[in-house]
Amino acid sequence: MWRVKSLDAILATAQKKTLHRSLGPVQLTLLGIGGVIGTGIFVLTAEAAQKAGPGMLMSFVIAGAVSACAAFCYAELASMVPVSGSSYTYTYAVLGELMAWLVGWALVLEYAVAASAVSVGWSGYIVGLLAHLPDPIIIPPELAAGPYAGGVVNLLAVLIALVITALLVIGTRESATVNACLVAVKLVALGAFIWLALPVMTVENFHPFAPLGTTGIIAAAASIFFGYVGFDAVSTAAEETRNPQRNLPIGLMASLGICTVIYLLVAAGAIGSYGAQPVYGPGGEVLEPGSAMIADVCASYATQPLVCSREALAHVLRSINHPLVGNLLGLAAGIALPTVILMMIFGQTRIFFVMSRDGLLPEFLSRVHPRFRTPHVVTWITGVAVAIGAAFFPVGRLADYSNSGTLFGFAVVSLSVLVLRRTQPDRKRPFRAPMIWFFAPLAVIGCTVLFFFLPWQAKLLFPIWSAIGLVFYFAYGYRHSHVGRGRDKVPDVELPGPIAD
Q1: For the chain, what are the domain ranges?
Q2: pLDDT in the model for residue 144
């Protein structure tokens, strides 16, 4: 179970496929921005404010710094091994099959649960937008949230998840252009928010800066980390990239850098123009974001604080006398957030495909639809699971669940870079990450610290999820592994066209 798949075998396998290499640095950067900018900034701003208050500015810096350290590691590995599979593939080549399986299984938690979280975030903006129309359309509270937040089922979140799944089954060959257009919509919307919010900032809104102390800031960083999930999706497009040794590092670092600057400006605008202090229970206790208790407290406010809003940025603009722009921002979120859901579900199916190609998952997951030429079986399995998560859980809880898998994957990739530097020092590295002996350990430490600041439910879920994965591995993958059978050069599996083909 510690057997590795050599880098040469991985590269040889990838070369046998005929995927069209059409992505350049600009498209990869847009792909990364499209995957990163989503629920993290549009929705989780309120969640972060409840945990850290104005100190969430530091939370964004911490989460961005940890992500940047991991991005250096991803960039080096992606340039060396420009194939699909992301951190799963890298781990298989360096740390062995068992660790690769655990990473691949954690990516299921990352992508699928993240798609559920974005679906819930989208629902919040649509519910708010419909309620602010000239002729308001009010979605019953029972159908606007799951049981944890005082509802029954989040119907709109279920619908968007299933619609995106159906689109992925039908095909997404024109999605590069669509993605670029919708990224532009998100950037224009956030640019309008920054333009209107920053000029009306007041210093008073930043005090107290850290009402819940350093612990609150780090806990918010652990949740906000979700806002950076998605830049690693750039590496899943490695086999569709022109000159991947050069363009992949550019796409990874540029998308992360641009998103971090945008996040800080948006957070500063929200705090300075409207305020971002947490709310407390009747006894002065700190309330958990997204809970039924905080919903009850928020219902008692005549003017809702930022932490009470499910459409935080639109709520801020309406509150600072820009209701039309606030509604347009809500519309932009409603139009653009589904692209993030699409990216997450697509990334999930790609990981499943690569694991199936290695024999670790059953071959039926690789079945391609006879008409649409898409992996309809695994796409529907993933889509239904995403819809179930979106139906019953709040966005903050889903984000924390997703983060537990993401932090593990980032830490393992960072460790893999160090191991590879030691075991194969002479292998060609088209992009050689600077100061890797500083940044990689820092990424591992940062991911570990943020993991332990996640809510206890997320920390408990990850080992349970990993244990379930180990059962599947030893029941099927261990015996059917192509590497275990001595078949390093696995048979060709026709993958569907890339999302940005």
Answers
A1: 23-480
A2: 82
